[in-house]
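$ run holo --ligand "zinc ion" --emit tokens
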Amino acid sequence: MLPRHDTSGWIRRTGEYVSLCLAGAGLCLSLSRWWCAALGPSWQTPVLFVCGVATADFLSGLLHWFADTWGSAAMPLLGRRVLHPFRVHHANPADILDRGFVDLNGDVALVTAPVLATTLWIPFDADWGAAAWQYLMSICTAGLFTNQIHQWAHSPTPPRLVRFLQTCRLILRPQMHCSHHNAPYDSHYCITTGWCNPVLEKLGFFVRLEHLITTLTGQQPRHDDRSFSTARSV
Ligand SMILES: [Zn+2]
Ligand SMILES: [Zn+2]
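-- output --
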């Protein structure tokens, strides 16, 4: 029988709702602050937006790589809560389609909310203020949708607008994400837009990082992921 994601208890579900509410409020408050300051867009806006979205994509890859590659699902605290879903997702990719909106996006909202709170305190009268705000808001806005975009990449019937955005390569394409879902799951980690994947693969970014970590710590990459898959297939 294929493994499945853990269902949320009421405490965890409440935390997911609160995280989503905080992130949504942070987004609205920060946008209204920008609006009230009457700053508007500048020639830098599209550049900062693209850089912010690319950064969100890179961060999604870094977190995904870390969770896939290191640690154990049996670890206290982080293991069951953070790493186990990644092990399940490799063994049973379609399981993500059974996750509801709150369950799917609550954790990302929890990580994004503090960054959105920071954008509320950026001084617009400083030389760097407007640029920093636009860059951080682009990261947060794209980052908030990462897990949702990941789920859409697995969906056989995503909404028409989503299909359009996938075709335009503005969000992760299913074809690109397929490249990750080949054992040993060691490439194409970026799951927001997928823009960084070709560059990082060309540079051998994660392979080099793994060599460095193995040299420094003696830990073997994907040891736990392999054990999880082997245990399931026996
Ligand atoms: Zn993975
Ligand atoms: Zn996936």
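-- notes --
The radius of gyration is 19 Å.
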